[in-house]
Structure formats: structure tokens, C-alpha cells
């Protein structure tokens, strides 16, 4: 992580490790699954969540 003071606000840069990228991808996949469930019409019709 690198922090610097900009013209009028602080800036922060971050970098992910390979394991961090993998973990982030897993979190994003789960959030997408939750959004798909929320978008599905009542009664269970619509998009099928991905298998675990």
C-alpha cells in the first residue's frame, strides 16, 4: 500500500498478491450470485445459481 497527499485530497494505491486476487475473485463471485438471486422472480424461476 502506498499513500500520498494529492493537491487537495489523499491518494492511496494498493496491490494484491496472487492469493489476494484469488480471494477477491471468490468474494465477487459470491456477490454476483447474491445479486442473481435478488433479481430472480418469486417462485424460484429465473437464473440458476452456480454450483458450490
Q: Please describe the biggest sheet, giving its number of strands, its sense, and whether it closes into a barrel.
A: 2 strands, antiparallel
Distance, first to last CA: 33 Å
- Basic shape: elongated
What is the percent of helical residues?
40-55%
Helix-strand string: EEH
Strand order of the largest sheet: 1-2
Percent in strands? 15-25%
Kindly name the structural category: alpha+beta
Overall radius of gyration: 18 Å
Mean pLDDT: 86
Can you offer a commentary on this structure?
This protein has one helix at 18-39, and strands at residues 2-5, 10-13. With 52 residues, the chain is an alpha+beta fold. A two-stranded antiparallel sheet has the order 1-2. The relative contact order is 0.11.
Summarize the structure.
It is built from one helix and two strands.
Keywords:
1 helix; two-stranded antiparallel ribbon; 42% helix; 2 strands; alpha+beta; single chain; 52 residues
Layout of strands and helices, then pairs:
Elements lengths: L1 E4 L4 E4 L4 H22 L13
Antiparallel strand pairs: 1-2
